[in-house]
Structure formats: structure tokens, C-alpha cells
Design a protein that fits this description.
Distance between the termini: 47 Å
Low-confidence stretches: 102-108
Number of strands: 10
CATH architecture of the largest domain: 3-Layer(aba) Sandwich
Radius of gyration: 19 Å
Structural class: alpha/beta
Number of domains: 2
Helix content: 25-40%
CATH superfamily of the largest domain: Leucine Dehydrogenase, chain A, domain 1
Shape: elongated
Number of helices: 7
Strand content: 15-25%
Length: about 220
């Protein structure tokens, strides 16, 4: 049985298990299961992998899309460019055969971790249908792993952006400093924070919504 899953903490917001279980059933995939693995400390990731030798792949969510990169043996181009990983392939190929292919060493493990970022594709394909000619500036709410993929796509689409955070960070705007003028001149607003995720779908980031118009 092939095993897949999601790591992050907490995972109460995730609908991944339901989604993939239904997807496997719908597509007649009977040799795969998907589980949630709430890991409180990413430092235990290596131990976790050895305790679950049947794992073939993992999705990565808040707050580990950045930290998990330290344990990745190989990164695809976009994950490297973005600086965040949300999908891991666990390659059980022998270290010797991998070495002959000129790939990265295993560092003593009998598997290799390959990191990818599918947030880039997902966000770009979700955003493009809504873009209009006047959508030239954006506010990105949050500055975690998901925001990295958003920044990458906005740069690709030549949309300038400003990052909005709760705490002071170089080059960012604080939520409390958002003005009507900033909302008015940034017609794309992207929420990358966990606020509003399941099960608390009625929660919203603290921005002045009354200044959002039909141009947004």
C-alpha cells in the first residue's frame, strides 16, 4: 500500500485527507492512502520519516514550507527560485544508483527527498482568469511559505506588490497601517495567512474592507 500525507501544525484546518481519499476512490486507485501527520517540531522530521518507511510522498503546509527545505536533498527549479517547498517526493532508490546519476548524496539515509512547489502553478492558474488590464499592483497579506510562491507569480506577471504583516519586517506594511489610499491603489489583494482557513472560514484578515471597490 502506497502511503501519502500532509505534514504541518496544527492540521485542524486541513481537508486534504477527505479530498485525496475521495479522489482515490473516484479514480479507482485502491493501493494508496492519505493521512494527516501533525508534527509539532520540524526538528523531528528525520525521525518521523524513519518511523514511517512506507511513505511515498508528502504535502507540506503551515508552518513548515520554509523550514523543511533544510532536509531536502534535491529541489526542482521553481522550488529553488521560490525558496519554499509544499510537496515532497520520497525516493527509495538506492544511494549507489543515485550517485551514478550524478544526483545529490543521501547524507546517510536510505532514501532521497525531492522538493517541489506546486503552489506556484495553483496560484497562477487561479489568479489569471480574474486579471484585468488595471490589475497592476497588489497587496500580499502574510509573509510565510505560501507568500513566497505568490511573490514569484506576481513577479512573473509583472504585478508590483507590497507585503502586509502583523509584525514589523523590512519592506513590509503593518496591518494597522493600511490606509484607504493603499487599498484604493492596490487592486489585487491576496491572503496568504491562515486566517479564514477551515474550520474558521468566516474569519477575515484585519483590513478596511469598506474601501474595496468593483475595480478590485
Amino acid at each position: 500500500m502506497r502511503k501519502f500525507g500532509l505534514i504541518g501544525f496544527p492540521l485542524s484546518h486541513s481537508f486534504s485527507k477527505k479530498y485525496f481519499t475521495e479522489k482515490f476512490e473516484k479514480e479507482g486507485i485502491t493501493d494508496a492512502v492519505y493521512e494527516l501527520y501533525p508534527i509539532e517540531d520540524i526538528k523531528t522530521f528525520s525521525k518521523f520519516l524513519h518511523e514511517h518507511p512506507d511513505l511515498c510522498g508528502l504535502n507540506v503546509t503551515i508552518p513548515y514550507k520554509l523550514d523543511v527545505m533544510e532536509g531536502i536533498d534535491w529541489l526542482d527549479h521553481e522550488a529553488k527560485e521560490v525558496g519554499a517547498v509544499n510537496c515532497i517526493r520520497i525516493d527509495k532508490e538506492s544511494p549507489i544508483s543515485v550517485a551514478f546519476q550524478g544526483e545529490v548524496a543521501f547524507g546517510g539515509d536510505d532514501f532521497r527527498l525531492e522538493g517541489f512547489n506546486t503552489d506556484v502553478y495553483g496560484f497562477e492558474m487561479s489568479l489569471k482568469p480574474f486579471l484585468k488590464g488595471h490589475h497592476k499592483k497588489a497587496l500580499v497579506l502574510g509573509n510565510g511559505g505560501a507568500a513566497k510562491a505568490v511573490h514569484y507569480v506576481l513577479n512573473k506577471l509583472e504585478i508590483t506588490y507590497q507585503t502586509v504583516t502583523r509584525r514589523e519586517q523590512p519592506g513590509s506594511i503593518l496591518f494597522r497601517d493600511l490606509t484607504p489610499e493603499l487599498i484604493a491603489e492596490n487592486h489585487v489583494i491576496i491572503n496568504t495567512t491562515p486566517v479564514g482557513t477551515s474550520p474558521n472560514v468566516d474569519e477575515c484578515p484585519p483590513i478596511p474592507y469598506e474601501h474595496i471597490t468593483h475595480a478590485h
